[in-house]
Amino acid sequence: xxxxLSWLREYVDLPATETGRDVQAKLVSAGLxxxxxxxxxxxxxxxxxxxxxxxIEELEGFKKPIRFCHVDVGGAGGTPSGGGTGELQExxxxxxxxxxxDKVVVVLPGAVLPGDFAIAARKTYGKVSHGMICSADELxxxxxxxxxIIVLPPHTEVGxxxxxxxxxxDEVLDxxxxxxxxxxxxxxxxxxxxxxAYGLPLRDPALLDVPGPNAHGHPVSIADPMGCDRFTARxxxxxxxxxxxxxxxxRRLQKAGMRPLSLTVDITNYVMLEIGQPLHxxxxxxxRGAIGVRRAEAGETLTTLDGAKRVLxxxxxxxxxxxxxxxxxxxxxxxxxxxxxLSADAETGQALGTTEVLVEAAHFDALAxxxxxxxxxxxxxxxxxxxxxxxxxxxxxxAQRTVDLLVLLAGGTAEPGVTEVIAPSAPRTLTIPADHxxxxxxxxxxxxxxxxxxxxxxxxxxxxxxxxxxxxxGGGRETGGQDELIVTVPSWRPDLVDxxxxxxxxxxxxGYENLPSTLxxxxxxxxxxxxxxxxxxxxxxxxxxxxxxxxxxPFLDPKVFDELGLEAGDPARRVVRLVNPLSxxxxxxxxxxxxxxxxxxxxxxxxxxxxxxxxEAGLVFLPRENATxxxxxxxDHRPTxxxxxxxxxxxxxxxxxxxxxxxxxxxxAGWWGGxxxxxxxxxxxxxxxxAAEAGAELVVRQGVYGPWHPGRCAELLAFVDxxxxxxxxxxxxxxxxxxxxxxxxxxSAMELDLDALEQAGAGPVRAxxxxxxxxxxxxxxxxxxxxxxxxxxxxxxxxGAGELLESLRLFDVYTGDQVDEGSKSLxxxxxxxxxxxxxxxxxxxxxxxxxxxxxxxxxxxxxxxx
Length: 866
Description:
Layout: E1 2-4, H1 5-8, H2 20-29, E2 33-40, E3 48-59, E4 66-72, E5 89-93, E6 103-107, E7 112-113, E8 117-118, E9 122-124, E10 127-129, E11 132-133, E12 151-152, H3 162-165, E13 170-176, H4 187-198, E14 220-222, E15 228-237, H5 247-255, H6 263-275, E16 280-283, E17 291-295, E18 301-303, E19 309-311, E20 317-321, E21 324-328, E22 332-333, E23 343-344, E24 351-352, E25 357-364, H7 366-375, H8 381-388, H9 395-410, E26 413-422, E27 429-433, H10 436-441, H11 447-456, E28 460-463, H12 466-473, E29 484-488, H13 499-510, H14 530-544, E30 548-549, E31 555-556, H15 560-563, E32 588-589, H16 594-606, E33 612-619, H17 641-650, E34 656-663, E35 665-667, E36 676-677, H18 680-694, E37 699-702, E38 708-720, E39 723-733, H19 735-741, E40 748-753, H20 754-760, E41 776-785, H21 790-801, E42 805-814, E43 823-832, H22 841-859, E44 862-863
Parallel strand pairs: 14-17, 30-33
Antiparallel strand pairs: 1-13, 2-13, 3-4, 3-6, 4-5, 6-11, 6-12, 7-8, 9-10, 15-25, 15-26, 16-25, 17-20, 18-19, 20-21, 21-22, 23-24, 27-29, 28-29, 31-32, 33-34, 34-40, 35-36, 37-38, 38-39, 39-40, 41-43, 41-44, 42-43
């Protein structure tokens, strides 16, 4: 919400010395997010005056049309050698949207325009130009419909100071209104907050004399009182189609961030900004019969003001006449009843346009408008306000204000008929202990302060305590019981629904900065859990291995499963869908980390980072079977055990996963030697690194799953709860997946269940024990069938070597002339060490022979060269 300070002063008598920065500080202290204060015209310097074009000479021989104008600027002008003589100013101008007799804005030599653009007499196109005829952009007035010279109304007096006339010097506060503060999307709401912050009275623009409803108004029928509980209709006839919005209204709209269009539309926008009630004006000559409000019929169509033909949903709330829908309620009107632009009759030349207007001021259900706006991907100034809550009692005042302005500025006549359809409703009343804000804030405000602050936000407050009444008669001493306040919430604050909301109002108005700061005292002996320690160790280990952590949003589009090549019945396809997602394009919670991580890799690769190694550890969300619907928990007391159990039963299972993705060079080339591209082995090694931090034995064997290349996919297994279980996969991604996701060639990835890996671990990882005894190394090369996995051979060698084996490493795989066809040679380096003695050659040889014998027994392995 953009708030011009000059407009704000109409409702609050701020001290003349108060600047926009001062008001910003006050409003921020009251809890509003004032992002910036824009100082309009602070670098503008006159003379800047109103002039009248008296003559125009067309200059020829140039690439573009150039005009040499003689402009009367009254007493502000002068000859090139002097000023103030009243002679015509000679000005060169390239614009074409004005003619002789028009009133324009002229900047004279010596002036400075926004952007430190100094104006001086200068020779151009063979003529000397003494000044410039200005456009809106050159004066910093924002976007203009024509992007041409400003043509002022004919009655504007020549020589008038244009800086004051166009209100070019002002300050505008840009306020980010949070969803619970819908009333602040209006000058009325911001003025109320400002008046409260300064302790000054408020001139409420909605306090108008409004005639009561009668039987002579335009007929209105509401079929859905839940969707529309209030509808006011007023009619104005005899409008002058040539009437234009006055300069002050156009400037206020521009400062507030809206573009002036036509008088009638500008008035409805102005009143919306002023009071906060969205309005709509219909060309009454195009309305057929009574106006109705109902839900749309599935398949109905409506062409909205933006020219789009929309197919309506059965949940859409629509405005209708006897033909059908003529507007999308609370979002946008229909094209059939649009206010007609000014035109002229081709034969008579008579001005044509809308001369009678039907004004609608209604109150619609916030949820219905929000869903309609999202469903049609159509957000408007009206829908933004209805979604956040509009004061239902302001509708009749806003309609009256609109009628008054149409009569005043367009020469119309207000018809006596007033239609007002209202669904019965009672004001909302809450009961709150008088000391509740004290207990929430941790400081004593006192009953008087609580009552005063609640009254300042518009609440009616009444006492409800025999104890308080007794204490008042007994010298102000409380004699028992609890002092309670009965609070009637104002109509413009739909967000105040429980005592904590009222407490927040007291606290923010008293100042968040005044709240005491108390550090919590953690109980001794507590720190990170073992699960948290593992996550940190894994993160540090991967970072040390060259990976960069990338945190992604936990949302995905289920279509990504097709791109990942998952089978139709894959458990990962069962997702938890959000009722109100942040983005309709990602409506589900993730069941795998790969989509978000691969998206991050794709973005970085597209921006020039081709050597990438990313990792992420985060929760995935797996729906429960037959989950019950969750209950709404109370906020004023601790939930019961049954309520918490019901809530937990409805929550999805949320294991923590770990994933890595790699592409490009894993080791870069340089003067030190050649580099190495990232591959499937690096993805497997990342899994081993995580397993080492968890103290778990990880089994790696060939597998086939979803996005991975079937010939380069490793299945990761670990013993969980006494049984071997697949906890993840690693390897190179399938070329089809790379193409579908737009990823670089040979991209590799790994994902595993980190919680399952923790369960497979041996508990807290102990520091390694450093032996002082020497190590004995033995190399063996075993010839085994080509289909035998190296990991299984390694496992058998470990088993056979016994306790003396410290480590085992595969350092060579050979297939060629020196081994039989269908076989391969696996060369391992075995390191033996005893913790309490130096091993003898006989002991090392015996351990090695046992390992080889075990491999020969299991796989028929033979020593190469034997």
